[in-house]
Write a structure and sequence with these properties.
single chain, 228 residues, alpha/beta, Rossmann fold, Arc Repressor Mutant, subunit A, 2 domains, 5-stranded parallel sheet, 4-stranded antiparallel sheet, 8 helices, 12 strands
């Protein structure tokens, strides 16, 4: 996924860029509001990290422009700024910001907030996607519906999200920690045993296609790349 960083402080921009690249995110940078707007319209990133105090135009003005443009209105914006007063936060959210983080900041907190936003973006894209078919398994995120053949399978919200993530990343191994992060959320006070319990229940409910979810011993789980 791609993140656009609009920040004129080179040191901070590099710090943000470095930490996000460690999470295998693609980063683009801009040091001014006008250039940032142009890049946002050209690249259509999955997230924009925006400083409020830019050399040519204010970050709030940039955010307004992004939200008033049909091409960029759906892109989430995280404001990253030294302006930490309550009124600054209120105004930031009023103009359409999705999150607000003040400087100085913890790189770890930044990464967790970014991942949470991108997870919501991914869920939103799935919710508006068409029916997904994999062998005998059918998944319709828009209807919150799963079928095996002609039989509808009733899943809990977590089971649905777990299946959704595994199916969406089929062929790739997901560690238990990754599943906790992607499905339950980074602040969930859970253990990896929680993942194993839910995988077991999910397989039982899926019945004959339960073996689509493979156990990678000592690591985690993987959804088959191709159906039988």
């Amino acid at each position: 996924m791609k993140v656009l960083i609009i920040e004129d402080d080179r040191d901070i921009a590099e710090l943000v860029d470095y930490n996000l690249r460690q999470e295998r995110l693609v980063c683009e940078g801009s040091s001014s509001g006008a250039d940032g707007l142009a890049k946002a319209r050209r690249l259509i990133p999955d997230l924009i990290i925006l400083d409020l105090m830019l050399p040519d135009m204010g970050g709030l003005e940039v955010c307004k422009a992004l939200k008033n443009d049909d091409r960029t209105s759906a892109i989430p914006v995280m404001i990253l700024t030294a302006k930490g007063e309550e009124m600054d936060r209120v105004v930031g959210f009023e103009v359409g910001a999705d999150d607000y983080l003040t400087k100085p900041f913890s790189p770890r907190e930044l990464v967790l907030r970014v991942k949470a936003i991108l997870r919501r973006v991914k869920d939103r894209d799935w919710q508006h996607s068409k029916l997904h078919t994999f062998g005998k398994l059918q998944m319709d995120p828009a209807k919150f519906q799963v079928k095996v053949g002609k039989n509808e399978i009733r899943l809990t919200a977590i089971e649905f999200k777990l299946l959704q993530y595994l199916l969406g990343s089929r062929g790739r191994v997901a560690t238990r920690d990754l599943l906790l992060d992607q499905v339950w959320g980074y602040d969930a006070a859970l253990t990896t045993r929680t993942v194993d319990t839910h995988i077991k229940r999910l397989r039982e409910k899926l019945g004959e296609v339960g073996d689509y979810i493979e156990t990678i011993r000592g690591i985690g789980y993987r959804f088959k790349e191709k159906p039988d």
